[in-house]
Amino acid sequence: MPITYTKKDVAKWTAEKLGQKIFQTEEIVDGVFTVLREMMSGEDSIRIEIRNFGVFEVKPTKAKPRARNPRTNEEIFVPARRKTHFKPGKMLKEVLKQPLK
């Protein structure tokens, strides 16, 4: 089962890394996530590049007029929507490529 980290965990680790109080970094971390969410929800197609970390992308999808519900076999219409995608940066890829211990 994977380990789950929350926004509070990110704030806590950031506080430890910067030698700050957790309540100070909670506001900053919350602000960063709020801004990212607002940026991603604004336009149909957007790309947020964070050097040495990765790229967040929002891409539009096409409508699917003849999709099929696998449970009932019923044909349904799926409207066009937006989907998110994350592509890790070079440094993150290198860390993830290392063998597990």
Principal-axes shape call: elongated
Mean of pLDDT = 92
CA-atom Rg in angstroms? 19 Å
Uncertain stretches: none
Query: How many strands, what sense, and barrel or not for the largest sheet?
Result: 3 strands, antiparallel
Structural class: alpha+beta
Distance linking N and C termini: 17 Å
Taken in chain order, the helices and strands follow as: HHEEEEEH
The order of strands across the largest sheet is 1-2-5
Strand content: 25-35%
Number of helices: 3
Estimated helix fraction: 40-55%
* SS elements, strand count: 5
Topology (SSEs and partners):
Blueprint: H1 7-18, H2 22-42, E1 46-50, E2 54-60, E3 64-68, E4 75-78, E5 82-88, H3 90-97
Antiparallel strand pairs: 1-2, 2-5, 3-4
